[in-house]
Design brief:
The chain contains 14 helices and 20 strands. By secondary structure, the chain is of the alpha/beta class. The strands form 5 sheets. A 6-stranded mixed sheet has the order 6-2-1-10-19-18, sandwiched between helices. Strands 11, 12, 13, 14, 15 and 16 form a 6-stranded mixed sheet that branches. Helix 3 crosses helix 4 and helix 4 packs across helix 14. The longest helix has 20 residues.
Length: 466
């Protein structure tokens, strides 16, 4: 096959790039390894909230940029942070012009949420919701402009000519070999969250113990192709996800909601020895990552008292109180800390002592003296004092990985020496350098996807210069 541009992956980043390039008169092919008409990828399952580090995209760009750098501990490349901060709203406005619908969400940072909403979808209830409608809208626009999605085509190797990428080869779902000759390749196949081998190397020593809170199709094919072609790969640590009931492994009604992040934000989380192991004030994404890097990712227990359970436990849609128990998740309840320890199989005296020391530190305003330190993020930590007391066996749920192919602000894939690789672009969650790293800084997969895709396509068209 021959075309001007070939895109690997038909999620939101791949289709935004394909449609934008087609608007410039280029002949575009999109390769999607899945065969179904409505292939299930993360973009189809998304709740559809466009934000920037839980800040409204309508905020001033300099404030958004500062937010990105703060969340990532200055890990983010400044040019990528600046691109997302300046072009987040522009990417949404462009999507609206091609027919993608948005609405205002229930929280102040949610000016742009896909419509019809999918904020309450459980398991794989995605048909007719925001992500499904978005992908169908973008595909219809691509078709109208002369492009197409080739379903059942899995890209495997990039074709290099004199140091430039000039196409790729792969295999169809029927086992046939194919080759595409093109002026450029866009890698847009998302993260590697479903690739156990890559997770083992970069994210967790026990990938089987991390719940796949995603479409379970992201294998990192694009990352592997790019690396083999000499592309620079960023720090692969860090994933976006949430803390879930550990019963989720056997109960499909417990994902993607409720997650336990807000209960942890006010309460605490302990290991099988009944001891804290991370700073809960860093937020649910950081706690999920801390759970994953340990030897026992599922052996964790969320602890709350009645104030926390009835206040923080009821925050958000499909909150753990009462959704968890209503959907069959374990919820231990006791009238004393000692009794709660017995229900959870914890050593009573050490657990009671830990809770007493924790409460004393919080009441004295000395959370930083604890080990690990207990900071106050968006939620104020609350002493565990008001009966009844609650405990929830928990696990880490992974939605997408945040490291990947290194790019610049034009979404050009970079070689190991930092120079752009001619003819190779990477967009969306296949990229790294904006999120993740040591601080697991989460910015937002959707805004990253739409901005990098739009800018990459415009650079390919010769309309964006950096």
């Amino acid at each position: 096959m021959q075309c001007d541009l070939v895109v690997v992956g038909a999620g939101v980043s791949g289709l935004v790039a394909a449609v934008r390039a087609s608007q410039g008169g280029r002949h575009v092919l999109v390769l999607e390894k899945l065969t179904e008409d409505r292939y299930v990828c993360n973009s189809r399952l998304t709740t559809g909230v466009w934000h920037c580090g839980a800040m409204d995209l309508l905020s001033e760009p300099d404030k958004l940029e500062a937010r990105i750098m703060e969340i990532t501990g200055n890990y983010a490349r400044l040019d990528l942070a600046r691109a997302v901060a300046s072009d987040g709203v522009r990417s949404v406005r462009w999507m609206q012009k091609v027919g993608v619908r948005f609405m205002k969400g229930p929280f102040d940072y949610q000016s742009f949420v896909l419509s019809p909403p999918s904020l309450t979808a459980q398991g794989r209830q995605w048909e007719g919701r925001g992500g499904d409608v978005m992908l169908r809208t973008l595909e219809a626009e691509l078709s109208r402009l002369g492009g197409k999605i080739c379903r059942g085509y899995r890209a495997k190797h990039l074709v290099l000519e004199d140091g430039a990428v000039r196409g790729l080869t792969g295999e169809t779902s029927s086992g046939a070999h194919f080759e595409v000759q093109a002026s450029a390749v866009f890698i847009a196949d998302g993260g590697f969250q479903a690739n156990q081998e890559l997770l083992l190397d970069a994210v967790t020593p026990r990938p089987e113990a991390i719940f796949q809170r995603n479409a379970r199709t992201g294998m990192g094919d694009g990352l592997l192709m790019a690396r083999a072609a000499g592309a620079q790969i960023t720090d692969l640590r860090g994933f976006y996800g949430h803390v879930l009931s550990s019963d989720v492994f056997s109960n499909d009604r417990l994902w993607p909601y409720p997650y336990l992040d807000y209960v942890i934000g006010a309460g605490l989380i302990v290991d099988r020895a009944g001891q804290r192991f991370t700073d809960e004030g860093r937020g649910g994404v950081a706690v999920a990552n801390a759970m994953a890097i340990g030897d026992d990712p599922t052996g964790k227990i969320v602890i709350a008292d009645s104030r926390i359970w009835n206040e923080s436990g009821t925050q958000r849609l499909l909150s753990p109180n009462p959704t968890l128990a209503n959907n069959g998740g374990r919820l231990y309840q006791a009238d004393s800390i000692a009794e709660l320890a017995k229900l959870c199989g914890l050593e009573v005296s050490s657990f009671v002592g830990m809770i007493q020391a924790y409460n004393a530190a919080l009441e004295a305003g000395q959370g930083s003296s604890l080990s690990p330190s207990r900071s106050a993020g968006k939620q104020k930590p609350v002493p565990i004092k008001v009966a009844p007391f609650f405990a929830i066996p928990a696990c880490a749920g992974i939605t997408y990985t945040m490291g990947g192919i290194a790019i610049n602000a034009a979404s050009q894939a970079l070689a190991v020496d930092g120079s752009p690789i001619p003819g190779l672009y990477a967009v969306g969650c296949a990229t790294g350098g904006l999120e993740g790293g040591e601080n697991c800084g989460y910015i937002g997969g959707l805004v990253k996807s739409s901005v990098t895709a739009l800018r990459g396509a415009e650079h390919f068209l010769g309309e964006l210069f950096t």
